[in-house]
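DM between two lab members

TW: hey, do you still have the MFS transporter entry open?
JB: yeah, one sec
JB: this one, 449 aa:
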Amino acid sequence: MPQDITRDAQAKSRAAAPTKPTHVRYWLIAFLFIITTINYADRSTFSIAGASASEALGLSPVDMGFILSAFGWAYVAAQIPGGALLDRFGVKRVYVGAIALWSIFTAFQGFVGLIGGLSIVGSLFVLRFLVGLAEAPSFPGNARIVAAWFPASERGTASAIFNSAQYFALVAFAPLMSWLVHDFGWRAVFYVMGALGLVAAFAFAKFIQSPEKHPMVNAGELAIMKDGGAVSMEAKAKGDKAGFSFARLKVLLTNRMLLGIYLAQYCINVLTYFFVTWFPIYLVKERGLNIMQAGFAAAAPALCGFIGGLVGGFLSDYLLKKSGNVSASRKTPIFIGMTLALSIIACAYVDQEWLIITLMAVAFFGKGVASLGWAVVSDVAPREYIGLAGGVFNMFGNTAGIVTPIVIGYIVAATGSFDGALIYVGLHCIVTMLAFGLITGKIERLKMS
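TW: and the structure you got?
JB:
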């Protein structure tokens, strides 16, 4: 009996002792980074295969512009429905289905031109449109996962990590996809990336769930999340008043702070979509690189963008911890980054390949530093429906995915050069700074009735 009493006392003592927090959220953001890398690699498949595919299929620059824009049309149109689906059904189910669907549609692009009687341009447009439709919930889902798993003081870094995957995608996959085109033909790119995405969907289904249900998360880590303002990533109950409504959507579409954030994200994404659509083609057609050289050349600025994204996130969170000022901590890296990104304009006035790659590397390092939009969304979105708020934000930002490829296609067709396109892209850096400086105002959580 005394031994039993002693054991009970020891158990109670251990239960009362503070729990050393686990760090499962760090593994989770690493996994989210991998998923987002595959996401962006699938977006850029036609950019890498495009130079070869355009010759094989007889596509003009204007045809290419419309095909490259197809993703953006669907991606933008599906943002608000995708965000609402995340809030209604939860992140896990919607995100797993999205990965599986976009991977299947990616693989199908490899079959274009093999079936007689179908329009090649139309088929590619439709398939890339379907990829955009399926990918729509991905970044609002990322934002909701980060808001659920990370305290406010770590969200800048966490958001920067998953957002920097857009650059790492080309670092990791541009050489691989270029090799596939060179040795196996352009169709192989779509088959391989589609298969890889299906594997990613299975892995996501196994690993991702809410912190409260994750078997590896202990009470100490849960307390860090809760005390830091974490939200729920679970589905809303039926009839929950926190769900979608047009009144709430109207507030999201008319709030001045949010409108400034939307405009800035559009301008930042002009650089993103130049990079993931026309940049490899620019290196081949304007600068005379072969497909293998272009793949490795595109990886250098992408690596700098990846590093810049991490630097921007770390810097923003460091400033937030030191000052407690959310606005200054988010805006300072954005202004620094966009100033550096202006160097893309200089590429229109130099001829040396090494100097062009260097200037592009500086530009995309700066763009990476400034890519804090998703951290800002996590800071300002109403707690009840971060999915919807993220969807509206991403809808505006990715309108650049429609406009940029088409405008650049027309500029190149009209002038026979990419110089005007580079100037067009670079001017958006200035508009980004004006949006955050003159329109957004104080960055703070939006409260809605």
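TW: got it. Confidence is low (pLDDT under 50) at residues 3-17. The CA atoms of residues 175 and 295 lie 5 Å apart.
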